[in-house]
Write the structure tokens for this entry.
Amino acid sequence: MQTVSSAETAIARPPVLGEKRVTLRGLTWDGYLKILDALPQSRAARLTYDQGTLEITMPLEDHEFALRLIELFIRILVVELGMKIKTMGSTTMNREDLNRGSEPDCAYYIQHQPQVAGRNVDFATDPPPDLVVEVDITHTDINKNRFYASLGVPEFWRYNGREWRIYQLQAGEYVEQSHSPTFGWVEKDDLYRFLEQAQQDEVEAELALRAWAREKVAALRSEA
């Protein structure tokens, strides 16, 4: 699949503040677990622990807007393509053997959905999610690419409020791609257009996206 350059066209929007972050360093695995266990299950803050560094992220409005719309974008594509999906959301992905743990913005089993359907996932023995999405509008001290590559996540999306970057795991490292390995016919401009339309009217944007996806899928099937 073709790689892309940094000069790729991105969505034109003014700077936004998407998250507040607190970073703790020199924290042991047990210390991380104690903090994780002390926090309530229903909370907005998300934790990422990377070999001694704990980052606590508090999402703000721009973060949540982009995240919820990207989640909808993925679900519509999956439904129209007739694929299967298991949504993990921000389920804690702890790997003590790697000294890493994460609560990603959203994660999905798509290709491996049949292997984990109908039960809780055990990250120690089950494959990692097929797709993880992170919205990082403000600076993060965690190297997210290295982090999710170490967990073996095959496809990783990052969105910074302006640009959607797509990474595919190859030989243990992420290589940036121009198209999603899962949704190869989707252009980046399709997501940008959807997000821009949703700024004004989310319902109309969703209806337009569903209609567009159905037309694209029908055309692809007729060519097959």
In short: The mean pLDDT is 93.
